[in-house]
Recover the amino acids of this structure.
């Protein structure tokens, strides 16, 4: 027993709370939003800003250990909590993940290749960019997610306008790489240094947002998967990481593996582990935070995860989203191996993550067939 705290009240926090409660822990969530998904299901919900000093004191007093569920939690808050309670992940890893430039330097420093890039933090830096990074993608260094804060830049001549469009905040310009596919891997590291991983997952994005994750036998060549796992473990060890870490990779057309970014927390692409593995990424987060033993998770079923965005709640001809509807859950739940996860968000918005569906079966072909059927029923692209 004991009490585990989480900074942030989104769906990742909610699924952490569920896993912690299933393991017998009390939970406390710190989040300003009265109807945050994690706050709704937690034993205690402290409604305050992440920087509110008295709320942080209240959280630390109520908890034996504290984690986070989103990467933009102020490093100062983590540091303040870490003075009095175990905090995982460590503030240093979180602050690296908060800044794309620092992240890329960190990857390269530890021998993990990433896309060629330049930091754009001044008109001078912009002027000095050479021709090799084009066509490229300009990304804000901080606060981007789901492809937000990114602009495609075909030629150097377009760079100034793109930077303007992003508000001339600190950015990185990345070379656009020829991708064969994208994958990611979840690792968990405990305070004693032991480290385990989930199987590498293959990811499909639509409009910069994760849409589909596949974890099927033979889905990724063994040597590529091994490289991804090694790289993620190296990155975790490098910061004395404690907790769950996800590293996203590009597999290039020439077969090379390149790290894209990391998330110092469970990740959308790891949700399949809830129904396809004997330990989910949230179980691993609980174990690392509570100082429980880590054992290698075992995937017992091939799986596909489909993300459910708010768009599904709007009829295709209803661009404004004036008349939200509920998707036909009955029709998909009638199919064997369909696991529906909804986060209890009351307001559907286009592009907002409302839930996900994990599809499992004994055989990969059955998983694919059912996933395509689900996609057809819901009107999702079935391009997997
Ligand atoms: P997340 O929600 O995963 O945090 P993000 O907003 O941080 O996403 P990225 O992961 O950097 O954005 O990029 C989003 C997607 O855009 C990638 O998954 C990939 O499909 C595409 N992309 C990003 N950078 C590159 C690149 N250098 N070359 C080719 N495609 C890229
Ligand atoms: Mg990101
Ligand atoms: Mg990403």
């Amino acid at each position: 027993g004991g009490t585990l705290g989480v900074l942030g009240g989104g769906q990742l926090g909610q699924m952490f709370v569920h896993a912690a409660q299933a393991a017998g822990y009390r939970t406390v969530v710190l989040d300003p939003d009265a109807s945050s998904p994690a706050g709704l299901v937690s034993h205690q919900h402290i409604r305050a800003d992440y920087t509110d000093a008295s709320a942080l004191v209240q959280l630390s007093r109520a908890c034996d250990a504290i984690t986070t569920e989103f990467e933009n939690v102020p490093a100062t808050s983590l540091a303040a909590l870490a003075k009095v309670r175990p905090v995982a992940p460590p503030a240093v890893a979180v602050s690296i993940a908060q800044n794309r430039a620092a992240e890329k330097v960190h990857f390269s420093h530890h021998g993990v290749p990433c896309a060629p890039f330049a930091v754009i933090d001044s008109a001078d830096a912009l002027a000095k960019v050479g021709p090799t990074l084009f066509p490229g993608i300009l990304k804000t260094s901080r606060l981007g997610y789901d492809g937000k804060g990114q602009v495609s830049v075909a030629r150097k001549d377009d760079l100034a306008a793109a930077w303007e469009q992003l508000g001339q905040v600190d950015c990185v310009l990345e070379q656009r790489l020829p991708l064969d596919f994208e994958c990611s891997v979840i690792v968990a590291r405990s305070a004693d240094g032991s480290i385990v991983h989930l199987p590498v997952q293959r990811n499909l994005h639509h409009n910069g947002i994760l849409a589909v994750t596949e974890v099927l036998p033979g889905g990724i060549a063994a040597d590529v998967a091994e490289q991804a796992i090694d790289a993620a473990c190296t990155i975790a060890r490098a910061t004395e990481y404690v907790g769950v870490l996800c590293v996203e990779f590009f597999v290039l057309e020439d077969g090379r593996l390149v790290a894209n970014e990391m998330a110092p927390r469970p990740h959308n692409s790891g949700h399949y582990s809830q129904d396809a593995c004997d330990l989910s990424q949230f179980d691993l987060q609980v174990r690392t935070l509570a100082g429980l033993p880590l054992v290698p998770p075992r995937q017992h079923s091939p799986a596909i995860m489909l993300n459910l965005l708010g768009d599904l709640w709007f009829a295709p001809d209803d661009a404004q989203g004036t008349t939200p509807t509920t998707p036909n859950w009955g029709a998909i739940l009638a199919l064997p191996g369909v696991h529906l996860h909804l986060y209890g968000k009351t307001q559907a918005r286009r592009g907002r993550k409302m839930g996900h569906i994990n599809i499992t079966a004994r055989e990969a072909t059955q998983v694919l067939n059912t996933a395509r059927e689900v996609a057809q029923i819901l009107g999702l692209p079935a391009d997997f």
